[in-house]
Specification:
The protein is α+β, with helices and mostly antiparallel strands. The protein folds into 2 domains: about 50-205, no CATH class; about 210-285, no CATH class. It contains 9 helices and 6 strands. It has helices at about 50-80, 85-90, 95-115, 120-130, 135-150, 160-175, 185-205, 215-220, 265-285, and strands spanning about 5, 10-15, 210-215, 225-230, 255, 265. The strands form 2 sheets. A 4-stranded antiparallel sheet has the order 3-4-5-6. A two-stranded antiparallel ribbon has the order 1-2. It is extended. The termini are far apart.
Length: about 280
């Protein structure tokens, strides 16, 4: 399979020699992969997506399943208010969410016909209703599982889970990728976005969260290292022996990296930051 390079300035594919790619090595007109603008893979005339782009999306889905299994331990380490806890928690049922949007649309249309609201108000009201969270693995894979099953008439009584939805979508990838009735770029883009977000959440939890320079060190004229945040303990283990479980940030502390005796509660730290901002604003006025 031949690969070209997409030139954004010229808005066309170029051969390795820098010439416009119009014909392949057999003299036939070339057709390039439509999955991504910058993909230069040659494909068959009856295809839409190259095997490389299909493989990337397959790997992204498998990666999402692996990352989803790591979210609960990460949530226990990061706290109940962390993004890991949000991703580890159950998502909205895709079918119920879609039904809710449909019901809202019908009600708005009826009110508009009765003259209770204008068309502009109806449009704004529907737009204000949040879409599915495409960064949540269950919401994303569950939504596409439901949509693809409906399009291809593949009903199932199996419970929708991240793993089950991933298995079904992977089995249908070859068909989805070459189906003109499907939006493969949207599908692949959302899968890629979800995978990147989950990786970013886990990477953030590995790195310590740092705050402002230590106030005590600043007052003493010492070199002031940045404070490090430690989250209060939270878990759902009925046999946990920790004396206190926090459901908010009241158990969080900020500690100096150079002197562990320099320690503040999250409330005191937030108050100090606010006072510091106000003082800086007055001095700059």
């Amino acid at each position: 399979m031949t690969t070209c390079r997409y030139d954004r300035d010229l808005e066309q594919h170029l051969t390795p020699d820098g010439e416009p790619c119009t014909h392949d090595e057999y003299g036939d007109p070339t057709k390039h992969c439509t999955a991504r603008t910058n993909c230069g893979q040659h494909i068959g005339h009856n295809d839409l997506t190259c095997a490389r782009c299909v493989g990337r999306t397959r790997n992204d889905i498998k990666r999402i399943v692996d990352l989803a299994a790591l979210m609960l331990p990460a949530a226990l380490a990061g706290g109940v208010n962390s993004e890991a806890a949000n991703l580890a928690a159950p998502g909205a049922e895709p079918a119920k969410w879609a039904g809710r949007r449909l019901a809202m649309s019908r009600h708005l249309t009826a009110w508009m016909r009765l003259g209770r609201i204008t068309e502009e108000q109806a449009t704004h009201a529907l737009a204000a209703m949040p879409d599915d969270d495409d960064r949540h693995p269950y919401n994303l894979l569950g939504h596409w599982d439901m949509a693809i099953r409906e399009d291809y008439q593949h009903p199932s009584n199996k419970r929708v889970t991240v793993a089950n939805a991933a298995d079904y979508l992977i089995n249908q990838l070859a068909r989805i990728a070459q189906d003109e009735g499907q939006d493969w770029p949207l599908f692949a883009g959302q899968i890629r976005k979800c995978r990147r977000h989950m990786e970013s959440v886990l990477a953030t939890l590995v790195r310590p969260e740092r705050g402002a320079p230590c106030p005590a060190c600043v007052e003493n004229g010492d070199k002031a290292p940045r404070l490090v945040r430690k989250y209060g303990h939270w878990c759902t283990d009925d046999h946990c022996r920790e004396p206190q479980h926090y459901t908010d940030d009241s158990g969080d502390t900020w500690t100096c990296g150079a002197n562990r005796e320099h320690r503040w509660t999250h409330a005191d730290y937030a108050k100090w930051i606010e006072t510091r901002r106000a003082t800086t604003a007055r001095s700059n006025a």
